[in-house]
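queue> holo job accepted (alpha-D-galactopyranose)
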Amino acid sequence: MAKPNLLDEFQSIFNVTKIPRIFFAPGRINLIGEHTDYNGGHVFPASISYGTYALANKRDDQKLRFYSLNFPSIGTIECDLADLDYNEAHDWANFPKGMIQCMKESGLKITTGMDILFYGDIPNGAGLSSSASIEMVTGVLLEGLFELKIDRVQMIQLGQKVENDYIGVNSGIMDQFAIGKGKKGHAILLNCQTLAYNYAPIELNDHVIIIINTNKQRTLAGSKYNERRAECEQALANIQTVIQIKSLGDLTEEQFEQHKHLITNETNQKRAKHAVYENLRTVEALQQLQQGNLETFGRLMNESHTSLQLDYEVTGIELDTIVQAAWDQPGIVGARMTGAGFGGCAIAIVEIDKVDSFKNNVNKIYSEEIGYEASFYTATIGDGARELTEGVY
Ligand code: GLA
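queue> job finished
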């Protein structure tokens, strides 16, 4: 959908003339380091130029009105600032409600109601973190409207708390971190155990990052995700009977190989293997990129996908078909699924000159095999969550 005139929409939907402030939070891709965040490992995500816009004004009373241009059939959702508990009937609005609740509970003074209009251009359910984007845009709008003093990492952690405690998905910190701390032209290497991070410029010379949406929605993602997390926790507990580690991310390759027999459940052992090796691959990937070894970076991306396919088992026929098709094209450096998996998006690093033929060929193979088309976007790495002040409508 073409970007609507957000100011007009705001004023007509809420029937007001006051000019709202406008905030934006991006979505994210993850270059490598998948399902490592909740295992105390490293991730390497970047915020993208697609994201969620929120136009907001304070009200004189305690009423909250939410409207999303992406879900017009749901209409305006209303509640009171004193009653922010999860409510199934409130559908998507539970994400901003959860953020308001968590920020209030952390002691921040949110004192009046608000009118908030949302519009997102991240494909929904595509694994590009549309939900974390809504949480973080709500965070920055509360920070702006109520002049809150909140550290950005604390806001990120509150966003994760919304997912975990309010929505009920046991996700890690990667999405909120990538979105809250994103930087134009850079990816973030984040140690998810210590939250130490550094930015790495993404200079791909004659290459671009293509986001490929399988258009298969991640329907079962929540339950399968929590299952993977539990499997890794069991594997960790097995290893902890013999060595003192905090998380699977603490293990070197040698330590894992030496102790893996302690994980007696075969499935759990495969899950742990992915977590350990993927973490090591991620750290190596950054080094390779810094040394300008794009080819090795691409090979690590491919290995990441194979491990997610065979050991972590979170890919599925759609992602595997599309990634295999990408690997088979001229001009490809590397390709892998990105995000939680079970459908959603893959990313590929492709030579600029070959992009058109890449898209055509991959789409042809994919649609013949799967029965419907894929969508392609060129990823631009933009800044993190913020208030917009110029050229915003
Ligand atoms: C989802 C979660 C993240 C992370 C990825 C997998 O995006 O929200 O915390 O675990 O899956 O890497």
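queue> The CA atoms of residues 107 and 225 lie 31 Å apart.
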